[in-house]
Please model this.
Amino acid sequence: MQPALISVERLSIEFGSRRVVDDVGFALLPGKTLCIAGESGSGKSLASLAIMGLLPNEASVPGGAIVFDGRDLLSLSDPEMQPLRGKQIGMIFQEPMTSLNPLMTVGQQLEETLQRHEPFDRRARRMRVVEMLDAVKFTQVEKRLKQYPHELSGGMRQRVMIAMAMLCKPRVLIADEPTTALDVTIQAQILQLMRELQREFNTSVLLITHDMGVVAEMADDVVVMNQGRIEERAPAAQLFHAPRAAYTRKLLAAVPVLGSAPPIAPVEHAEPLLSVNRLTVRFPVRREGFSPRRQVFAVDNVTFDLWPGETLGIVGESGCGKSSLGKALMNMVPFEGSARLAGQELNGLRGDALNAVRQEIQMVFQDPYAALNPRQSVFELVGEPMLIHQRMRGEERRARVGQLLEQVGLPAGVMDRYPHQFSGGQRQRICIARALALNPRLIIADESVSALDVSVQAQVLALLEALRGEYRLSYVFISHDMAVVERICHRVAVLFAGRIVEIGPRDQVLHHPRHPYTRRLLSAVPMPDVSQKRDFHSLLTDMARPDPIKPLGWQSPPQQFTDYGNGHLAAC
Model:
């Protein structure tokens, strides 16, 4: 057996008197991928931060060792660790937008890494940066070097993080949830990219994730953690085919698998609750010199109906227009066309008329921590809609907030706490309680479970479904996770380049897709099974898509659909 490149031996980490990592040990072998899997709060990210010497100041290490190149990393001072970070051990952090400096261009940030570790002149640094951006499949490299992080998509920012981590060709790459909240095709591209770089540079990868589909795709060996302790250590094939720990079996059972969702009862089609007709969202493009004015079509001529008590899934890759569509329905961005809620036209509403209709339509956002004001208590957050719309005051409002919290599975006694005192799943429940405060008829859920652990995700989905049945709510459920969509949606609409290319009943769209783009999306879904691997080659080949940037005044031609029966339509 090969000697370990990094050996973590009986590591423990404490915050005050609370032990959050307890007697953890594992070994990372040269050229191999070790996955640390587990739910939020299991301690997996803290173990990786300890390797990098980046634990918070409040953390203490009462015992253990981390051996790399014959040295215990825990015994090194920060100045001694600095030459190792980036040069010998690279790290991809979970959220690239918070890890990249918003005041520096992509080129400046990449060159800064080389400046610290390599004796290159400016020209050599630029050549290495361009070479690495080519390696991570960046297009228009010279243009991208001058851009800032906010000008890039989520997938492109993650590629910048990978390029930065690999610039000095480190022997170890730590990837902390590198594909969380990315759509399935971008996720597949990022994972394949990591594989190629691993082969090219013989890098050992420590991959931290709660996505068991990613574990099955990437891992040679797996460590499963729960509440700071290791539940199971095994080769990937053994862990998936014959898991020994009860917790591992529970984790695998909670993973939504495409094709395993139970039947869902249809809803009555009387009068639609929401009618959307040729809805279009355009954003202006900055002019260069005397060039003609142009616009980006984020959403282009989208038409659909939503019935009372129905859940419509909106799926597609990043940049396809899903979130822009949801924001348009909330009147958060201007749009053209028509959107009628129970006969009330939403386009152009302002002031009191908009406030009145907001009682009927609410939104649950992707990131619950960003959606909740950290300075307000749960009582203030959930009770705020009632205060704004002058529904309730004083003790009556407090009683209603307690009732709402209990409806979403939280005790009423937590209403005086603040968002940072809750887990991600609990914060999302608070967001759902807030959305329910005014008894709306329609809720737009924008990637509302994408960043949650699988067991918490299952609980939130069950909650949404129970609330739908109890209050006859309708949902526009925006997601990139096809297995989650299958679990909760009656119908599915597939967006591609701002347009619906396929729409119909859940089972027909997901199991008998007609449009090539829908088939591509479904082929990209990761499976928690080591014997089923995705075809990365086909996923790395981009589909031809129309240019979303059009001259000012451009009007897109109406789409032509083929009807496959039972309301199943696919673009010709």
Summary: The chain has a mean pLDDT of 87.
